[in-house]
Amino acid sequence: MEKLKVIFIIVVGGLVLVALFQSFIAANKGETEEQRYSLIRRYNDFEIRFYPSANLATISSNAKSYSDLSGPGFRKLAGYIFGGNEENKNIAMTAPVQMNINDTASSMSFVMPSNYTLADLPKPNDQSVRISKTVEEYIAVITFDGYASDKEIKLYSKKLESLLQANSIKHKGNFRFYGYDPPYKAINRRNEIVVTVDWSE
After folding, report:
1. CA-closest candidate to residue 93, choices 171, 33, 146
2. Total-model pTM
3. Domains contained in the chain, number
4. pLDDT, average across residues 180-195
5. Which CATH number covers residue 39?
């Protein structure tokens, strides 16, 4: 009986996420805006990018895994952009969805559309959603396909770390996950592991 209850909760949660993504697609009627960056250097298995500052909507969480963070985090942030703010305004979703998963303080972020300034963005109704502006940064990026999981995130984080060490590139901070696709997209999925690096051109 308990197993059936767990399965039911998982199925319902999945359907909610699908419905939210479908609502987003219907509302935007076009391609999803991706966070802007400049490609600095491409290596065989990874690349270095420069990201200018951007505005984020972020939630913090005590989750320590992708599976625990992705569903609840997405629902809170989707609530904000689908009218859960002081202006009842719908805000277009962008890609990627960003996750910083670690054992101390995890977080999940939506990048706000580039046509908004920090002052333009409405205040969230949910006080756990915070709006902030990032600092510009250089990051190393490794890409993988398929559906993301905690196993793949750990695997590619280790792989990127090894590649950086092999190329004498220093990194700092946590390895983060970038996800680009809704759950109903079955093929050609794009996922990335990224980390801030010390880089001088």
Report:
1. 33
2. 0.84
3. 1
4. 93
5. 3.20.80.10
